[in-house]
Amino acid sequence: MPLAPGPLTRLSQAVRNGQLRASTLVQASIERLEAASSLNVLAEKAYDDALERAAHLDQAGSAPGTLAGLPTLIKDLEDWRGHPTRKGSLALADSPNAAHNGVVPARLLDAGAIVVGKSTLPEFAIEGYTANRLTGVTRNPWNPDLSPGGSNGGSAAAVSAGLVGVATATDGGGSIRIPASLCGLVGLKPTNGMVGRWPAPDWIDYSTDGPFATSSDDLRLLYGVVCGPVAGDPTAPPAGFVEQMARLDDRPFTLYAAERTSPLGPLPVDVRRAFHEAVEAFAALVAREVDWREPEGFFVDGDPDLDWFVVTSGEHVNSLGRAWVHEHMDQFHVATQGYLTTGLEVDVDRYLDARRRRFLYVRAMDELLGESGLLLTPTVASAGWLADGRLDAGAEVHGLPPEVYSTAMQNVTGHPALSVPMGFVTSGLPFGLQITAPHYHDRRLLDVAALVEAAHPWARTAPGYPGLDTVLDGR
Predict the structure, then answer these.
(1) Tens place of pLDDT per residue across the chain (475 aa)
(2) Is the peptide bond before 151 cis (omega within 30 degrees of 0)?
(3) Is residue 265 situated within a structural domain?
(4) How many structural domains comprise the chain?
(5) What Å distances lie between residue 330 and 84, 147, 334, 386, CA to CA?
(6) Any idea what the CATH number is for the domain that residue 61 is in?
(7) Is residue 272 included in any domain, yes or no?
(8) Long-range Cβ contacts of 388-396 (<8 Å, 24+ apart)
(9) How far is CA 206 from the centre of its chain?
């Protein structure tokens, strides 16, 4: 049986058809954001601007665009014309207003989205939890004691709680997939280059924009809006190539699974249980045997998870400016201080060694996946962490250790990766199964998401939070 249209599709159609006023939808979003203020998802409010734009759409008598009238948050890492981009940093608290829209914010606005504010993130988007000295701690609607993840924690918490319809997200080391997993969303890191990048990101070619959503249908909708090349991105394929990407069909494919792709130790017991249950369910769904792999067998020369820290920290120092980093070090969050201190110590030989090893990692994954293989791994190798980033109440706040992550490899190699909800861990948070596909098989992963949702539907919002589409029912 085909899946019903997703909430975003239903809402935008209702606005376009005149069944729902954009003003009503935006006002409902604002009221929900205010009622859920304890989640702390907002880096900036833009309610008056949003209501003005919604009123303009209503008065025009028609609302073009596939996202017509949908309340949206822009991650405060991305430029939104007329608003500051503070990147969660005290050092950028007085940033001037952006002169232009970023690539993805522009595409969302062109599709009819209405921005109600900017969402919170860890400082400079470097952490797997969303807390900084500028906006404080962001919480998970599934359990407010715990983190929604990072770096798109504010965006994910807002979507998971039904506060907005759309929230932008970037992924340079797992920032889409980690919050998607911890907040029960379906999220896609596209093949690097499929969403055009301009200007160059802080992490030059590891970072990409991408979508997450409450349903597979909405994930496909958002991917269609944000995907496409941009002048200046040397990795972006031509526009017509998007339609040529592979889809899931009846061709035989190999299914691989691994608890880890780097030797960072065993999974926590409850994560291992949830992962093996998810693999078994997925294998039964696609009627494939699973070829299990050990982490030591993936990469012989080097470790992409460890090289990721070398490359991104060095590039981030370069992006911010070495002198500026030294000047503002005492204003940074403690996790930022540790990360950028690492970057300050990366010399050119160490950086280039890691960059060259990237070719080996890409080759290893290309040879494993071939033309149609899928690799199953946990999205997050942890049952979650406290909202301020500590693994337990007795620990000190600092950067999360490498062993809780399971997502950086795909940024290094550029392969597309999907996180889809499949089960729960003992903390009560959802468990995300990560599915990695060959380069440019993004639409195939969208098909996989729909296949999983049809067989194993997930809760579209966190407990106690109604979906935004309940506005159509007057709730």
Answers:
(1) 567 889 999 999 999 999 999 999 999 999 999 999 999 999 999 999 999 999 999 998 766 899 999 999 999 999 999 999 999 999 999 999 999 999 999 999 999 999 999 999 999 999 999 999 999 999 999 999 999 999 999 999 999 999 999 999 999 999 999 999 999 999 999 999 999 999 999 999 999 999 999 999 999 999 999 999 999 999 988 877 766 665 555 566 899 999 999 999 999 999 999 999 999 999 999 999 999 999 999 999 999 999 999 999 999 999 999 999 999 999 999 999 999 999 999 999 999 999 999 999 999 999 999 989 999 999 999 999 999 999 999 999 999 999 999 999 999 999 999 999 999 999 999 999 999 999 999 999 999 999 999 999 999 999 999 999 999 987 6
(2) yes
(3) yes
(4) 1
(5) 22, 25, 9, 24
(6) 3.90.1300.10
(7) yes
(8) 388/129, 388/131, 388/137, 388/147, 389/127, 389/128, 389/129, 389/131, 389/147, 389/335
(9) 13
Residue 49, domain extent: 7-473
49's tokens: 């601007």
Report angle CA 103, 104, 105 to the nearest 5 degrees. Answer: 100
Q: Residue 47's closest CA among 71, 69, 67? A: 71
Cβ-based neighbours of 147, under 8 Å, separated by 6 or more: 128, 129, 130, 131, 138, 139, 140, 153, 182, 384, 385, 386, 387, 388, 389
Residue 63 lies in a domain: yes
Please check whether residue 165 is in contact with residue 212, taking contact to mean a CB–CB distance below 8 angstroms: no
User: Residues 87, 121: contact at Cβ < 8 Å?
Assistant: yes
In a domain, 291, yes or no: yes
Work out the burial of residue 468: count CB atoms within 10 Å of its CB; fewer than 13 is exposed, 13-18 middle, 19 or more buried. Answer: buried
CA distance 153 to 157: 6
Distance (Å) of CA 413 to CA 187, 303, 339? 18, 12, 22
